Amino acid sequence: MPFTDPASPLPAASIAGWIDIHSHLLPGIDDGCQDLEESLASITQLQQAGFVGSICTPHVFPQMFPQNTAEHIRGWTAQLAGQLRQRGIAYPLWPGGELRLFDGVIDWLKANEVPTLAGSRYVLTDFWEPVWPKWVDKALDWLLSQGYQPILAHPERLAMAQLPQHLEALTQRGVLLQGNVRCMTGEDGYLADQWVRRFLAEKRYAFLALDAHRPDTLASRLDGLAMVTQEFGPDTTRKLLHDAPRQIVSPDA
To answer: What predicted TM-score, i.e. pTM, was given to this entire model?
Structure first.
């Protein structure tokens, strides 16, 4: 069942607006918001832009962030949600994680809880390598074999040869893709700028997301979202930022 905060002020899945499935809003635990004030400033900007909830997905990578486990992330998300309620801010949050794939990640996952999105079977993953490693396929196939639904975050940022062919092989096996809207602006590099447009045109993405970090980076991400709507139409943004996220946070709604 999807994670539900019993004191959540609004069922975000029941109201119109964007839901960001990939965000770094939890304060002080990775390269996202550094303190509560930055978290609050980011959420205020998100609300003003039409967002009605976010899944908190701090980096889950034991070599860099050993404290970022699914159990801790649930607690930190509930704590931030409580701080929002104390301030009268109606903005639901769900726990998740951005799972870094690495050689040995299967053994780590067997020894630890898989960090799923909003208590669902969806798992947000990423990796950073100059070539496509075999252990990526093994890790994603293992997640599929265990009944999870892996999502590969921002594949357009992978600067490697034969990227479309690798992604096609993944999607044929059932892996979903999530694009970052800021790549539309060119701020993540020329290749990302080209790939994100190609993958949108080819309808490869199951989700789009802000990958929200600190409040001073949100403007460019929202610019990218506006560019998606302008170039690919409002139906695209509605499908990938409104409809699809609700299949994670409230699949039966």
So the answer is: 0.94
